[in-house]
């Protein structure tokens, strides 16, 4: 079985659980039986980055050196300061260098996994039009404004739109990662990983 590259995008003010949750799921899948189906790494425009609450992260790769991902995880996190200055995804969704890199990766990638307001970045990259999507409950209207032809599902935890898997706020990214593991490798593999992690995931399907 081909080992899939899983690139976890990080940036300043990224929500910690948004990227660490999926990182854990993909990293520990297949470790007990030695199959090791995922090569998981972090990538950012620069290094180090300062995630939420000043967590310093040293990405494995920069955008220029990153191997082509089979799976790209785009996390969320951020908002606007009191003075209106954007940070996190609200800043990065206007980062033309990052948007161009995502669009460069997209054609050859197998799946994109959007966590929380990572959907706003994908929408700004023009990848969310004419598909079902979701995001953090506080950003649903914003997502609809950026991608007016998208079917934004307000109460969905995970939405499978084929190539792109969307998830709601923060912890929903863990469920989306398990869902994608099950989709690619089978439900039993995902359940074994969830049991190892002592995470309550029942293997539900999403639409």
Automatic annotation (TrEMBL):
Gene3D superfamilies: 3.40.50.880. InterPro entries: Class_I_gatase-like (IPR029062), DJ-1/PfpI (IPR002818), INH-QAR (IPR052158). Residues 5-181 form the DJ-1/PfpI domain. CDD domains: GATase1_PfpI_2. It comes from the Bacteria. GO terms for biological process: regulation of DNA-templated transcription. SUPFAM superfamilies: Class I glutamine amidotransferase-like. This is DJ-1/PfpI family protein.
